[in-house]
What we know:
The complex is a heterotrimer of chains A (253), B (319) and C (307). Chain A has 253 residues and is of the alpha/beta class.
Amino acid sequence: MSHILKLEDISVSFGGIHALQGVNLQLDHGSIHALIGPNGAGKTTLVSVLSGELKPNSGTVHFDGRSVNGLSTHERARLGLTRTYQITALFQHIAVWENILLSLKARDTPKVSLMQLLRAHAERHYAAELAEVLKDFGLEEKANALPSALSHGDRRRLELAMAIISNPSILLLDEPLAGLSTSDAAELVALIRKRLKGDVPILLIEHDMDAVFDLADEITVLVDGRVLMTGTPEAVRHSAEVQAAYLSEEDDF
Amino acid sequence: MAGSYRMIEGIVVLAAMVAAGPVVALLSGDVYQLAVFERALIYAVAAASLNMILGFGGMVSFGHAVYLGIGCYATGILANADILPIWIQLPVVMAASALVALFIGLIVLRTSGVYFIMITLALAQIFYYLAVSSSYFGGDDGMVIYERTTLLWGYDPFDSWHFYFFVAGITVLCILLVNHLVRSDFGRRLVACRENPTRATALGFNVFAVRLVGFVLAGVICGIAGFLLANQAEFATPGYGSWQRSGELLVIVILGGVGTRFGPVYGAFAFVLLESVLAGYTTHWPILFGPFLICVVLFFHKGLAGLVDRLIPGRARAG
Amino acid sequence: MASLFAEQLLNGIQLGILLFLIAAGLTLIFGVMDFINLSHGSLFMLGAYFSVLFQALTGSFFLSVGLAAIAVFGLGMLLEVLLVRNLYARSHLDHVLVTYGLILIANESVILIWGSVPIFSGVPEALAGQIPLPFGIDYPAYRMLVIAVGGLVGLGLFLLIQKTRVGMLVRAGATNRVMVSILGVNISLLYALVFALGALLAGLAGAMAGPILSVQPGMGEAVLILSFVVVVIGGLGSIRGALLAAMIVGLIDTMGRAFLRDILSAFFSPQVAGEAGPALASMLVYILMALILFFRPEGLLPLQRRH
């Protein structure tokens, strides 16, 4: 099978509360798989299990045909399992361009080496690529600003830029559009499409249902830590079960 | 533009740092004044190494003086065994400090925040008590070091001027090394791990490894300061590695300005000169130094380096 | 041998009790205000000196201990209001530096007033003797009293924190700072009281330790570092952890100093044992701390913090 990512029977509990129970999920090359569910359904927990920030109580995460359960977060990141954060996680006290540069360097030389001690900042090597990224993500004029001085939309763009340019083999997007206006969200979706050529699969967690049904090839609905159903957007849209459990509370659906 | 400005600033600060001692010694006609400035230079090296992990790596080590002690004892033990050449002494000192820093780092870097502060303190105490109770090396009373490090033919370690420039030369090299390290590719990663360890990990950096490398490098450079101190004081005592000494190093870094390029130099000179001037007036100088310290923390947030920046027109922020 | 062992056991408990009184204040101040107070050891020292001062004035040992504790309570209150409360919002590094400055001031003031020569404040005559304990053991009456008083104060502290409204706020403050501020409590008063209470405990410990230790400048630092070890081993902010850790540290330190040399000499030559015994004994506590933190970085009984 060509599942690049496969979750097998994942369970997580925090002191008696079951955050995830027996979750199975598969992600294929080239697909965009959306994960939806009411607040507290365990979506972010699932992303943390994938990225390795959280160890599951039971179950296995398979990546590219092998278990990555024993790998730490940075080792998974080096394999190309890249995530973004719901609350933007940027390097707050260094400039926007340096944030991007760090991501580029992490992509090329993640390990500590003697060269890094000897070499002064190797900006020149990355100058062209840096300029291109800044331009693509509309951050050219803010290159020297600190992330704390950016608008919410710009911070989201920077967060996304740092994930996308790291050359991921899988992208885990945790609510990348949260708090954005419709037009900003549409622009960002177009940006993701443009930058991610080829068949990089995406696991998308999103509350914006228009975006989810517009982007996703497949949708998994998570309720109370269990998978309620997995199917095409059409199937999910028309499932009575899903509507009862979840969609009824969304006014704008 | 910015690059050449940085370079000029660096040359001016380092030149002033080296020249201060000789100028005072010549003007006062008292060559023993050099000793005060030697101590300031040595403290500058130790503080610069602490500033590297504190200011750039965000690691508040409350046991940094332990490497001062290790460097000092390693040098003293070699010297008293009549092994004097610098190319033997210095590598041994660096290896010893690296080993100790590796041992301490492997434990403390598992913790963070207040735990980090306290456990660096506690581990430093282990080495302090080791020195106190090692009667072979003088125990509590310390150990007299009879010979100074030899360098080349023509260098007389017991000539005041020769020795001063020996200390000053190594100090300049160490300060340049630290400033290079924090500007290096590695230094940028160290800062990233301080700013947001979660994101740094998500990018694929091994935060623990980056911090450990920084921690060990800082230990080695502080060990070199201990090597200089052994030569300067001709004495090794457990007191050099005491927690009070670690506290003083923190004070120097804060006084100079955390995370600034030359803050440790300003801080070390201010500390040592203030101490020797105040001690000249009263043996109770700490009663003046204590309030001074509190005022610095309360009112000069960026330390002396921030003050220097404010005095230079057109430089509102430290680079 | 058995009576020597029992005596050292009691000495260990007595050291543990003193450490608990100091560490309880430290850990409360840290838990509720997130403040690191290096000068806590200086408050201990001042308790000892104040007691000496009041003894000269009043002639009564017990009255002096009480007065000294109250004086340190007042001093702690003053310190909090004038200086410390401005620092809560600052980094831990700033806390360390300011309180380091306070140590310098305290030590030097004590030298200026009382000189740097150690003062031996004698044990009150009524308690100078030994008291017989079961199994034919004799133990100094004064040390027994220290254990009793320390135990009672510790019990009182537990009742205060577990049963009273102020205690409820303190516990809430240590686990969830935001909640307490929402409750509409006078936070600055609560903080001042907690700081002063910590000072009182340290001052009391100092006043009681005076006849056991020699009263001298810098006596606070040795105790301070041991108390930090206690606080960290126990788990920051946790009073129960501090009690457990204080007893462990008190016993291990005392027992190590008393018996380690003999234990080692069973395995090594007398020279090696004589050399390594005292060295290892003074390092024992720190090695224990390193080990505990290696396996349990949060300490033995950490607080369940909720943000």
